[in-house]
């Protein structure tokens, strides 16, 4: 399924060395093979180093996985903050929502294994990994809560909107696209990330009722 399509190309991997190469290979293995079924030996083999060499950069598989998840959240957070900074103060609420939906989608597909691991592999992460990652996930989600709350108080959405529930539905819908959307599809009728963002935002903003 398209989850695999967000992995890094062989050409890009060849350009990475040391710690970055370990992170990239590990992220792809965790995503495609699963956290529990991926060993440090597997990662070392993919990188082309001895297993002991990984310990020069990461003290354990848990620490390595935690860093991968942190990087993934960092990409989406930076995309959100950059979009906020670029938006005009008087941007219509619908435009603001569209911009953030597209920013999240772009981060999701541009940073493949790191962002996808937060969706696919995080649920089975060890408790220690979750404890380290949940606070930064929460901080990102709070940005969306603030955005949706501002849209609700603008008069463009129901003022009684359950912001947390709305955020879960919106982000859940966006994140699920890694299972079926392929931005590199060569078919003539394939949609771009921008097209996808417009459709998703329209569904949130206007609903699907007559």
Structure write-up:
The chain is mainly α. It has a domain at 62-206: Tetracycline Repressor, domain 2, CATH 1.10.357.10. Helices cover 67% and strands 0% of the residues. It is built from ten helices and no strands. The protein has helices at 10-14, 18-33, 40-47, 51-54, 61-86, 93-110, 112-120, 127-153, 163-175, 193-206. Helix 5 runs antiparallel to helix 6 (93-110) and helix 5 runs parallel beside helix 8 (127-153). The longest helix is centred in the middle third of the chain and has 27 residues, at 127-153.
Category by helix and strand content: mainly alpha
Number of distinct beta strands: 0
Order of helices and strands: HHHHHHHHHH
Give the biggest sheet: none
Named CATH architecture of the domain at 62-206: Orthogonal Bundle
Task: Report low-confidence residues grouped into runs of 5 or more.
Answer: none
Number of helices: 10
The proportion of residues in beta strands is: under 5%
CATH class annotation of the domain at 62-206 = Mainly Alpha
- The radius of gyration computed from the alpha-carbon positions, rounded to a whole number of angstroms, is 19 Å
- Average pLDDT confidence is 89
Instruction: Enter the CATH topology name of the domain at 62-206.
Output: Tetracycline Repressor, domain 2
The first-to-last residue Cα distance is 33 Å
**Shape assignment:** elongated
Q: Tell me the CATH superfamily of the domain at 62-206.
A: Tetracycline Repressor, domain 2
Helical fraction: 55-70%
């Amino acid at each position: 399924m398209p989850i695999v399509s967000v992995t890094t190309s062989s050409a890009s991997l060849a350009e990475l060395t040391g710690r970055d190469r370990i992170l990239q290979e590990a992220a792809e293995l965790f995503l495609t093979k699963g956290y529990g079924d991926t060993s440090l030996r597997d990662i070392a083999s993919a990188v082309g180093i001895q297993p002991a060499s990984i310990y020069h950069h990461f003290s354990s598989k848990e620490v390595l996985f935690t860093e991968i998840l942190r990087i993934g959240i960092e990409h989406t957070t930076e995309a959100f903050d950059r979009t906020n900074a670029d938006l005009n103060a008087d941007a219509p609420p619908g435009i603001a929502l569209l911009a953030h939906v597209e920013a999240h989608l772009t981060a999701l597909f541009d940073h493949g294994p790191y962002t996808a691991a937060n969706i696919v592999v995080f649920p089975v992460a060890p408790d220690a990994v979750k404890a380290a990652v949940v606070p930064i996930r929460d901080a990102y989600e709070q940005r969306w809560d603030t955005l949706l709350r501002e849209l609700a108080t603008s008069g463009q959405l129901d003022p009684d909107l359950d912001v947390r529930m709305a955020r879960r539905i919106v982000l859940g819908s966006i994140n699920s696209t890694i299972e079926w959307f392929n931005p590199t599809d060569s078919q003539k009728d394939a949609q771009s990330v921008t097209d996808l963002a417009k459709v998703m935002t329209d569904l949130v903003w206007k609903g699907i009722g007559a």
